[in-house]
């Protein structure tokens, strides 16, 4: 009886159940921690390094750039991050203008970045640590077409010939690097903090890009000052300190004299402060090449002109492919469509930049998607994929962590809007985020109201200016030009608004009696308030609107 097989197996079965229950408990704990971490990040993202009264604003201003850097192949303009509005939102803003054949030198920042491409098209290289170099040449001269690009690499090839490195085949060095991404007008680009990136204009017109840095993001362990660390060249700081700030009209390519690295000298990339001998040892190169990394005599500034054309490994850009990618983006609108794709309707084929890598539930799976393959781009200017659209009135497009999952980690999102002349966006407030509005073109009458019912902004908002609308402040827009276009950066990965009027408004959800008693009006007037406006977010005022108000 004591040796019955079932009894002998009982300890094994018990152990198995304990292990299974343990796995279930860990999974539940991880899910709970993930939710808790998300809520903590969303609730505390603006606490560190900030005073509690930073958003006590009695007046808002539309802001212009205060610093300008003229470069060899473009211009960099920045807004003063110490303005009260930016300190409230915890962000900094820069505008990059890159001329054709211009290269924005490699750099990284201490804060996550969200970039909107106002004009132009180009390519971007983003270096993510630990990710493989998936772009490789089939032979050494496949892209470079000769020995011109080999230059000083010839000596290094001989020196390392016997080692057989990963980028070497048959004694020849091959080019290999991480993925290169194409972008175009209307794209939002997400850049993690500390990730090095470069940008090249391969088009025939300038690239204009608006860059938002979320300096109070939880991942920024420095301070709230925006800092860009350049890895090459001899650049100027986009956000200089008070003592060295330069206003408009500065001389192009102006430099202070001096030798060696450090503040106020002629060398400002991160290699400038490292001894050349250390650089030579780290890269296993000679001293002459090591000192060239410090670029002490380079006066081209942050954006440089490429000699000839930039020859890098990349898939060819075809307009029809971009068009197909745009059409695919219009399909990413409903949850059912996303689940259909996950079910295999679009199965087969490899990963592409436009392909949806994780359009399902927001779970940290670690298998289906990694940072190396995560989508970092989404176009929000295409009216065919508008979230809100009213013919001859306007449209609203949004991007958040649901359709661009990396924004969950960056805790940022964005909105693109267009209003035709006299069209309005209903009065609303941002429930869980500050909103940084940049006007792409046109102008609009904008009013912003604080918690005391005071209008803290009541002016025309014009092209090229920025308006920061703090969380919970009510805002309304009315286009005054033929077309008013803007992009709003929001400090939450899933920013939400609450409308004061329209079909999806708070007042529509209230009982008639509550509306009547709150505003001291009749039930009939309460119903008119609730049901007269049939639209949701954007509308054009009707001709009889004023007479109706007069009668009331």
TrEMBL record:
<dbReference type="InterPro" id="IPR011051">
    <property type="entry name" value="RmlC_Cupin_sf"/>
</dbReference>
<feature type="region of interest" description="Disordered">
    <location>
        <begin position="134"/>
        <end position="178"/>
    </location>
</feature>
<comment type="subunit">
    <text>Hexamer; each subunit is composed of an acidic and a basic chain derived from a single precursor and linked by a disulfide bond.</text>
</comment>
<keyword id="KW-0732">Signal</keyword>
<feature type="compositionally biased region" description="Basic and acidic residues">
    <location>
        <begin position="147"/>
        <end position="162"/>
    </location>
</feature>
<feature type="domain" description="Cupin type-1">
    <location>
        <begin position="58"/>
        <end position="291"/>
    </location>
</feature>
<keyword id="KW-0708">Seed storage protein</keyword>
<feature type="signal peptide">
    <location>
        <begin position="1"/>
        <end position="22"/>
    </location>
</feature>
<dbReference type="InterPro" id="IPR014710">
    <property type="entry name" value="RmlC-like_jellyroll"/>
</dbReference>
<feature type="compositionally biased region" description="Basic and acidic residues">
    <location>
        <begin position="316"/>
        <end position="338"/>
    </location>
</feature>
<comment type="function">
    <text>Seed storage protein.</text>
</comment>
<protein>
    <recommendedName>
        <fullName>Cupin type-1 domain-containing protein</fullName>
    </recommendedName>
</protein>
<feature type="region of interest" description="Disordered">
    <location>
        <begin position="232"/>
        <end position="265"/>
    </location>
</feature>
<feature type="domain" description="Cupin type-1">
    <location>
        <begin position="378"/>
        <end position="527"/>
    </location>
</feature>
<dbReference type="InterPro" id="IPR022379">
    <property type="entry name" value="11S_seedstore_CS"/>
</dbReference>
<keyword id="KW-0758">Storage protein</keyword>
<dbReference type="InterPro" id="IPR050253">
    <property type="entry name" value="Seed_Storage-Functional"/>
</dbReference>
<dbReference type="GO" id="GO:0010431">
    <property type="term" value="P:seed maturation"/>
</dbReference>
<dbReference type="Pfam" id="PF00190">
    <property type="entry name" value="Cupin_1"/>
</dbReference>
<feature type="region of interest" description="Disordered">
    <location>
        <begin position="314"/>
        <end position="366"/>
    </location>
</feature>
<dbReference type="InterPro" id="IPR006044">
    <property type="entry name" value="11S_seedstore_pln"/>
</dbReference>
<keyword id="KW-1015">Disulfide bond</keyword>
<dbReference type="GO" id="GO:0045735">
    <property type="term" value="F:nutrient reservoir activity"/>
</dbReference>
<dbReference type="InterPro" id="IPR006045">
    <property type="entry name" value="Cupin_1"/>
</dbReference>
<feature type="compositionally biased region" description="Acidic residues">
    <location>
        <begin position="353"/>
        <end position="366"/>
    </location>
</feature>
<comment type="similarity">
    <text>Belongs to the 11S seed storage protein (globulins) family.</text>
</comment>
């Amino acid at each position: 009886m004591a040796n019955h097989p079932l009894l002998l197996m009982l300890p094994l079965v018990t152990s198995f159940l304990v292990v299974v229950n343990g796995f279930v408990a860990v999974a539940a704990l991880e899910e709970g921690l993930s939710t808790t971490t998300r809520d903590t990040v969303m609730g505390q993202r603006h606490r560190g390094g900030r005073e509690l009264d930073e958003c006590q604003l009695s007046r808002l201003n539309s802001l212009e750039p205060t610093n300008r850097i003229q470069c060899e192949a473009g211009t960099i303009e920045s807004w003063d991050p110490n303005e009260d509005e930016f300190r409230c939102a915890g962000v900094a803003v820069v505008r990059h203008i890159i001329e054709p054949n211009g290269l924005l030198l490699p750099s990284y920042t201490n804060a996550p970045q969200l970039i909107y491409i106002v004009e132009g098209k180009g390519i971007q290289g983003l270096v993510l640590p630990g990710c493989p170099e998936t772009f490789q040449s089939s032979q050494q001269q496949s892209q470079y077409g000769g020995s011109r690009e080999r230059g000083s690499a010839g000596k290094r090839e001989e020196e390392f010939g016997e080692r057989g490195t990963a980028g070497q085949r048959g004694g020849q060095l091959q080019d290999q690097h991480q993925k290169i991404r194409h972008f175009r007008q209307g794209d939002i680009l997400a850049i993690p903090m500390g990730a090095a990136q470069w940008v090249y204009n391969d088009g025939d017109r300038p690239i204009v890009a608006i860059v938002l840095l979320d300096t109070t993001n939880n991942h920024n362990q420095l301070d709230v000052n925006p800092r860009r660390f350049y890895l090459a060249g001899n650049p100027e700081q986009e956000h200089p300190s008070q003592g060295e700030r330069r206003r408009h009209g500065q001389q192009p390519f102006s430099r202070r004299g001096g030798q060696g690295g450090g503040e106020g000298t002629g060398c400002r990339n991160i290699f400038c402060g490292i001894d050349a001998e250390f650089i030579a040892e780290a890269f296993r190169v000679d001293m002459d090449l090591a000192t060239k990394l410090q670029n002490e005599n380079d006066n081209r500034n942050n954006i440089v002109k490429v000699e000839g054309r930039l020859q890098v490994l990349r898939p060819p850009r075809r307009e029809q492919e971009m068009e197909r990618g745009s059409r695919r983006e219009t399909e990413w609108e409903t949850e059912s469509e996303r689940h259909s794709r996950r079910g295999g309707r679009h199965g087969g084929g490899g990963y592409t930049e436009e392909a949806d890598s994780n359009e399902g539930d927001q779970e940290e799976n670690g298998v289906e998607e990694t940072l190396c393959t995560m989508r970092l781009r989404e176009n929000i200017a295409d009216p065919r994929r508008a979230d809100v659209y009213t013919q001859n009135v306007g449209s609203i497009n949004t991007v958040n962590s649901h359709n661009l999952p990396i924004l969950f980690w960056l805790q940022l999102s964005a909105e693109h809007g267009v209003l035709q002349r006299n069209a309005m966006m209903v009065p609303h407030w941002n429930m869980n985020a500050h909103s940084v509005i940049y006007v792409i073109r046109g102008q609009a009458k904008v009013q912003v109201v604080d918690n005391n019912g005071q209008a803290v902004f009541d002016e025309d908002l014009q092209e090229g200016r920025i308006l920061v609308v703090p969380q919970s402040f009510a805002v309304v827009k009315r286009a005054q030009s033929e077309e008013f276009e803007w992009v709003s950066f929001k400090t939450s990965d899933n920013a939400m608004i609450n409308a004061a009027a329209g079909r999806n408004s708070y007042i529509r959800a209230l009982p008639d009696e509550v509306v009547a008693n709150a505003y001291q009006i009749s039930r009939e007037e309460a119903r008119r308030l609730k049901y007269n406006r049939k639209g949701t977010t954007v509308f054009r005022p009707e001709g009889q609107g004023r007479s109706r108000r007069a009668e009331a």
